[in-house]
């Protein structure tokens, strides 16, 4: 037999309306009454009806998450971490996949925003103006995308590039190629900024920009021939999926990694350390970033805090770590062909 709010009220010795307010808007009842209601609810195993609670509070007790590509292990892991954190805080999660399409992303974000209390946009491709307009309708937190105006949680991409190039430089590499990600990717823009800063800092490194590629295995395959046609002895790749494609194509071309070419990338997805040649990569802290995004969004929802990063300490930048594995090594001698 289902436990009702009336059962909780009788056990706690309060009215049904007090039970409703204690569980939906706890600040509107006295601490003593709230403790009685919470204790009775636990003893009886009472779970409030979310639809009924929503009618009282005007909230759904759900968060939304829009990601670019659920088939990418990086975003799959992000989704799992966001869901776990949201669930632990009493929120359901509505997930939508934009298929790396900025127009579809905007439509999804508007649609999902009507069903949730707040929205996490993961690596959004939309413009700043479009994101700010969305934030006027529902609390929004950007994940893997910085903003001067909106709350955001990001990894330190610029530092990630610096430590990757420092590693390659220590191995003797001076001509390093970069296989970039999508044109509208904020992370790619940050990594390109890191390349410029690091090249200026080290002074003796030449960076060869190979252009932008789709952030998939196929994008890395396409980038590989350009790397091998250059004079670069090492390549830094936008993400691990691309790097795996590049390694596959290099193998088909008979190029030894790292003997003839060193390869490093970003993300540290599970495949990076366990398939073929373990990949040297800059590890993005997926779990901590996801948890921080949920925490920030919950703060915006629960406290009605401003979504503007400039007005509150809601811009978070988390450190990264270089995972040195087997795809980077000393610069090849002139006698070793690299293409």
From TrEMBL:
Gene3D superfamilies: 3.40.50.2300, lambda repressor-like DNA-binding domains. Pfam families: LacI, Peripla_BP_3. Keywords: DNA-binding, Transcription, Transcription regulation. The lineage of its organism: Bacteria, Bacillati, Actinomycetota, Actinomycetes, Micrococcales. This is LacI family transcriptional regulator. GO terms for molecular function: DNA-binding transcription factor activity; transcription cis-regulatory region binding. Residues 3-57 form the HTH lacI-type domain. SMART domains: HTH_LACI. It comes from the Bacteria.
């Amino acid at each position: 037999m289902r436990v009702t709010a009336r059962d909780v009220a009788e056990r706690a010795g309060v009215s049904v309306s007090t039970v409703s307010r204690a569980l939906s808007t706890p600040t509107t009842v006295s601490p003593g009454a709230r403790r009685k209601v919470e204790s009775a609810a636990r003893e009886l195993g009472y779970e409030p009806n979310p639809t009924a609670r929503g009618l009282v509070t005007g909230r759904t007790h759900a968060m939304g998450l829009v990601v670019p590509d659920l088939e990418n292990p990086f975003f799959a892991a992000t989704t799992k971490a966001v869901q776990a954190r949201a669930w632990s805080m009493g929120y359901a999660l509505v997930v939508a996949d934009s298929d790396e399409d900025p127009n579809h992303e905007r439509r999804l974000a508007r649609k999902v925003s009507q069903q949730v209390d707040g929205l996490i946009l993961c690596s959004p491709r939309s413009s700043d103006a479009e994101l700010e307009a969305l934030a006027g309708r529902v609390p929004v937190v950007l994940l893997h995308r910085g903003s001067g105006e909106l709350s955001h949680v990001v990894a330190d991409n610029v530092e990630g590039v610096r430590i990757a190039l420092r590693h390659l430089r220590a191995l003797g590499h001076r001509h390093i190629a970069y296989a970039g990600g999508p044109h509208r990717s904020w992370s790619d823009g940050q990594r390109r900024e890191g390349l410029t800063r690091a090249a200026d800092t080290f002074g003796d490194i030449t960076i060869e920009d190979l252009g932008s590629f789709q952030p998939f295995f196929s994008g890395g395959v396409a980038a590989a021939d350009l790397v091998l046609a250059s004079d670069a002895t090492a390549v830094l790749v936008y993400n691990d999926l691309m790097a795996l494609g590049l390694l596959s194509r290099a193998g088909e071309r008979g190029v030894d990694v790292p003997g003839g070419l060193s390869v490093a990338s970003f993300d540290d997805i599970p495949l990076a350390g366990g398939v073929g040649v373990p990949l040297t990569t800059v590890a993005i802290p997926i779990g901590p970033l996801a948890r921080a995004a949920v925490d920030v969004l919950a703060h915006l929802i629960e406290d009605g805090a401003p979504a503007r990063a400039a007005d509150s300490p809601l811009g978070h930048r988390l450190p990264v770590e270089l995972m040195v594995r087997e795809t980077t090594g000393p610069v090849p001698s002139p006698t070793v062909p690299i293409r």
